[in-house]
Amino acid sequence: MLTVSNLRFAYNNHKKFSFPSFSCAEGDALLILGNSGSGKTTLLHILALLLQPESGSIQINKQEFVGLTPRETAKMRARHLGIIYQKSHFVSSLTVLDNLILANYLADKELSKQRASQLAESLGFHELLEKKTTLLSGGEQQRVSIARALMNNPEVILADEPTSNLDDENCEKVINLLENQAKNIGASLVIVTHDQRLKDKFSHKIILS
Amino acid sequence: MLLKISWKNILDKKLNSFLCVLLMTLGIAIISLLLLLGKQLQDKFTKNISGIDMVVGAKGSPLQLILSSVYQIDNPTGNVYLSDVQEIAQNPLVKEMIPLSMGDNYQGYRIVGTNKKYFEHFKVKVTSGAMFKNDLDVVLGAQVALNTGLKAGDTFSSSHGLDAAGEVHGDTKYKVVGILAFNNSVIDNLILTSLNSVWNIHEHKEEAHTEEEEAHTEEEDAHAEEADMSKREITSALIKFRSPMGLMSMPRNINQNSKLQAALPSIEVNRLFELLGIGIDGLQILAAVIMLISGISVFVSLYNSLKERKYEMALMLSMGASRTRLFLMLLLEGILLALFGFIAGVIVSRVGIILISNQLNKRFHFDVNQMSLQTGEIYLFIGALAIGILAAALPSINIYRLNISRTLAEE
How many beta-carbon contacts under 8 Å exist across A and B? Predict the structure, then answer.
């Protein structure tokens, strides 16, 4: 259960944001829709604990995530959050499999090849596990980064513009994939996007302005 | 896992890594080679010198006299009369005089006429056979026996001069009566015999000459017989003093008041090492510069790749990696490169030593065979690591300044 209330953030005196309160239950999905400059990315980075808000609170399962030390923040992020960035990036010298296992390693969890293999199977890139990430197509890369976000069974999955570069057919596929995977592990799914196609697919949504 | 990522990163930039390792290898190999050679040369030179305070021989270059008499590498300065040397040996300051007479060789190994004191000086023992007793009996140094395959009981003809290409004394043959133990000194490469043997073999030769010329009278012959003992010649003599007082007075006295020349090994060898030292120092500086360039190349390579990998680093930080962990990962890349460079360098230097040793052995019968790790190389190892760490740390320190949010939002 993700509960967010009264978040405020300022880059400087002219550029201030205050965000509405919301919550998202386990296995549920939440769409945060907004145009460029509406503070989407800022909100996502605050939720991802990459930026510290001026005030407000973020709770996952009643545990407060605002106001922790950088070290604790990094640990919490690695253990409780799965983040899918708009553009897929990997450690380019490692294979797909190693990139997945890296998520375990950096979160100080047990390295699970089995989990990586299982995720690759269900996301349909099992044959790519031993390849370098630079050899993958854009769609393949995105599926791998979804798998990476799921490696540590997070409580909350954050997705930044997961569909912006996709055609209608693939857009549908990816969204279904995300929803199913989030349900499977009982995580709250938060999608931040400006993609109007997603508007009707989610009942639970917030529109930033 | 950290090691694995570092390793994969190195493999990912094969050419860059190769260049870094190559430069490091070159630097380490040169320094290590110089260390090995320098140490062994110094070992050999000081071991052979020990106990010998002064060398007397014919006038000429003092360094040449030392090299020919103590180290048996250069040509002798000429011959002197035994009687003149014996006169010097009468001086109460002189404890011991070891005469040396050379002029012939067998397959490039010098045949040196001397007496028992020479063996006592080196504290060397005969391992098989016996010490020479009769004229034309010889004992072989261990290295000579090994390389020529001669055994006790074998006979051979010597050649005139000090290199293998000399004219062969076909009519008189030396007989091997014993072989010496390994002494790790110049004696290993010598064939030793009595002074008489050397005199005899050359007398035969002179007779042959005079007969050919048909210009010798009985009168001359008789005269030669008479003058025999006093006109015996030797090449040089090694002198040991009773007290350091001898060092102060005798060399100058001999050089000024006689036809002989006196040279002090310690002074000449220091001079030689000073001359060599300039070359060795120069090469060492060159090698150190090469190592430094290797460090710079690690630095440039990491600096460039870090610019490309900025997003990668931000990603790993967002995935829970601590900055220190990433910093260590990058350091590890530098350390690995330095380590490979060091190992390769040490191996190359050993191969170099083997090649050089073969050459030296052929030319000077001078064996260098020390393969063990030198203490200097431990410092070299530390130096290489320091360069690797420093070169990796400088660009990697930026990890601590990386703004994760901004970097991730940039793209």
Answer: 65
Q: Which residues fall within 8 angstroms of residue B187, CB to CB, at 6 or more apart?
A: B118, B119, B122, B124, B141, B180
- Smallest CA–CA distance, residue B334 to chain A, in Å, is 16
Compute CA B181 distance to the chain's CA centroid, rounded to the nearest angstrom: 21
A103/B319 CB distance under 8 A: yes
Q: CB-based contact (8 Å) between A78 and chain B?
A: yes
Interface of B with A in 387-406 (CB under 8 A): 404-405
Provide the residue range defining the domain that includes A61. 2-207
- pLDDT tens-digit map of B397-409: 888 888 888 888 7
Helix locations, A12-162, DSSP H:
40-47, 70-80, 96-106, 113-123, 138-150
C-alpha A124, offset from chain centre: 20
**DSSP 8-state symbol, B125:** -
Give B184's DSSP letter: S
The reply to whether A11 touches chain B by the CB within 8 Å rule is no
pTM, two decimals, is: 0.71
User: B 300-339 residues with CB below 8 A of A?
Assistant: 309, 311-312, 315-322, 325
CB neighbours of residue B87 within 10 Å: 12
**Domain CATH code at residue A112:** 3.40.50.300
For an interface test with B, give the residue of A102, A132, A141, A144 to mutate (most B CBs within 10 A). A102
Residues 6+ apart with CB under 8 A from A71: B322
Q: Is B364 a residue whose pLDDT tops 80?
A: no
B345 three-state secondary structure: helix
Name the minimum distance, in Å, from the CA of B318 to any CA of chain A.
Answer: 7
Domain ranges of chain B: 2-45+274-410, 54-204+219-263
Residue A190: the pLDDT is 93
Contact B318 A77 (CB under 8 A): yes
What is Dmax (Cα atoms) for chain A?
A: 51
- Long-range contact list for B37-41, CB < 8 A, 24+ apart? B37/B353, B37/B356, B37/B368, B38/B280, B39/B370, B39/B374, B39/B376, B40/B368, B40/B370, B41/B276, B41/B368
Residues of B in contact with A41 (CB under 8 A): 409
Give the ipTM: 0.87
Instruction: Tell me how far apart the alpha carbons of residues B240 and B32 are, in angstroms, rounded to a whole number.
Output: 36
b/e burial code for range B196-223 (CB count within 10 A of at least 16 → b):
bbbbbbbeeeeeeeeeeeeeeeeeeeee
Q: How many domains does chain A have?
A: 1
| Kind and range of the H or E run holding B312 | helix B310-318
